[in-house]
Amino acid sequence: MKNLIRKLTEVFGPSGLEDEIRRVIKREITGYVSSVKKDPLGNLIAHIKGKGKRIMLAAHMDEIGVVTSFIDKNGFIRFSNVGGFFPIHSLTARILFENGVVGVIGEERRKSMTDPIEMRKLYIDIGAKNRKEAEKLVPVGTFGSYQREFKDLGKRVVAKALDDRIGCAVLVEVIKKLKVKPKFDTYIVFTVQEEVGLKGATTSAFGVDPELAIAVDVTRTGDTPEASKMAVKLGGGAAIKVKDRGIVCSPAIVKKLKNVALKHKIPYQLEILERGTTDATSIQLTKGGVPSGAVSIPSRYIHSSSEMVDINDVEACIKLILKFLKTDFT
Amino acid sequence: MLLEKLSNLDGASGDEAEVRNFIKGKVKNYVTNIEVDPFGNLICFKKGRKKSPIIIIDAHMDEVGFMITGKRQDGTLTFSKVGGINTSVVIAKTLRIGRKKIRGVVGIKPVHLLEKEERKKVPTLKELYIDVGAKSDKELKDIEIGDFAYFDTDFERLSNNVIKGKAFDDRVGCSLLIDIARKEFNFPLYTVFSTQEEIGLRGARVIGNRINADYAIILEGTGAGDFPSRKENARVPFLGKGPTLTVMDRSMIADRELLEIIINIAKREKISYQLKQPGIGGTDAGRIQVSQRGVKCSVIAVPARYIHSPVSLMNTKDYRDTFKLVMAVLRHLGRGR
Question: Looking at the structure, do residues A123 and A186 belong to the same domain, yes or no?
Answer without folding.
Answer: no
